[in-house]
Amino acid sequence: MLFYGLCRVLSWASNRVDDEANNDHHDHSVTADDHVIIIVKELAGIKPSVLQSIPVVDFNSEDSKDSFECVVCLSKLEDGDKARLLPTCNHWFHANCIETWLQLHSSCPICRNVVGSVQDSGTT
């Protein structure tokens, strides 16, 4: 996925240089001495210590009137499933699903709030 994104950015940058050269009617040809710097945001999950601070619990549907679906795997959370409740937004997920997600992303897959420990979010 990162490789695909890098290829897309390089293609876009190359096309942009060509377009600018054609529009300006100046000699903006790229030479071997020119350097193009492209910054690609790395996939960055949360720190392992933050993940470990989010408790794994046995899901209990009696605690809520709503039914919950894990949007990572698209399966319903059933009573007794190992689950995690994200502290910043109160969204439920299967424990294994959200662990995998948070190794690659630093935000909730539902609302995109940045996931952090209770201390990091500014609440006590």
Automatic annotation (TrEMBL):
UniProt-listed InterPro entries: Znf_RING (IPR001841), Znf_RING/FYVE/PHD (IPR013083)
Example GO biological process: protein ubiquitination
Gene3D superfamilies given in the database record: Zinc/RING finger domain, C3HC4 (zinc finger) (3.30.40.10)
Source organism superkingdom: Eukaryota
UniProt entry tagged with the keyword Zinc: yes
Gene Ontology molecular function, alphabetical: zinc ion binding
Domain RING-type: 70-112
Annotated keywords: Metal-binding, Zinc, Zinc-finger
Pfam family for this entry, one: zf-RING_2
Record protein name field: RING-type domain-containing protein
Species of the source: Brassica campestris
